[in-house]
Amino acid sequence: MPNTGKFYLYEVAPKDALDEQSRYPVIGVVRAECLSCHDVFSASDEPGLTNIPGGGAALTCRKCGSRQAISGARFADFMERFPTGSDAAARLTALAGKKPSPTE
Ligand SMILES: [Zn+2]
């Protein structure tokens, strides 16, 4: 589920350079909706997006300050479900009758 509790993830894109210390990708860009104030934002750097050493990242809503740490496993799960990086794109692909390819 893209719903993390405090945020709803729309898009997650990993950074090109992988953190070799981690089994999870470093998060480059996240587009999410804050479920407290319903602000939709993109974050690629602090304070909106803070990568956690070892995997995962913390999201902070710039509008209301809501904050949640999200595990690397959850981001990896999201990217596995939505290989295009986007929930919306995956839905469109499903509507078009094609299964998203994990190689794309
Ligand atoms: Zn908010």
What does this structure look like?
The chain has 104 residues and is α+β, with helices and mostly antiparallel strands. It is 18% helix and 30% strand. It has two helices and six strands; from the N terminus they run ββββββαα. The chain has helices spanning 72-81, 87-95; strands at 7-14, 27-34, 40-43, 49-51, 57-60, 67-70. The strands form two sheets. The chain has a three-stranded antiparallel beta sheet. The two termini are 21 Å apart. The structure holds zinc ion. Zinc ion binds next to loops.
Characteristics:
binds zinc ion; three-stranded antiparallel β-sheet; globular; 6 strands; alpha+beta; 2 helices; 30% strand
